[in-house]
Amino acid sequence: MPRVVHFEITANDPEQANRFYSDVFGWKIEKWDGPAEYWLISTGGNTQPGIDGGLMRREPATTINTIDVPSVDEYVDKIVASGGKVVEPKMAIPGIGYLAYCTDPEGNMFGIMENDPSAQ
Fold first, then answer.
1. Digitized pLDDT (tens) for each residue of the chain, 120 residues in all
2. Residue 119 CB burial class (10 angstroms; 0-12, 13-18, ≥19)
């Protein structure tokens, strides 16, 4: 069954948001060395339940959950057939996999991620 595996927080001032979450919760936040302005958030060790996430400049939504799926293409078809929409089409995240952003029929944004370390 697909599960939420990543969250994203958006901010007008990412540096301020990074300081806030680091100071308040002790999260480790590091700038991603990728093609987009993005910070990776580690919320804890592997011994406690939970997921890690990311922080990026403000988008229309405030928090985006990303769901692990076996195939982005297959789930895009299911989402559209069930009344959802694709907001950002499938894109490669080099070395990680493939990602698409969608909305449910109520307009709530979420991501779907296909794990594929060979993604370019």
1. 899 999 988 888 899 999 988 998 899 999 999 888 999 999 998 888 889 999 988 866 567 899 999 999 999 999 999 889 999 999 999 999 999 999 888 787 889 999 999 999
2. middle
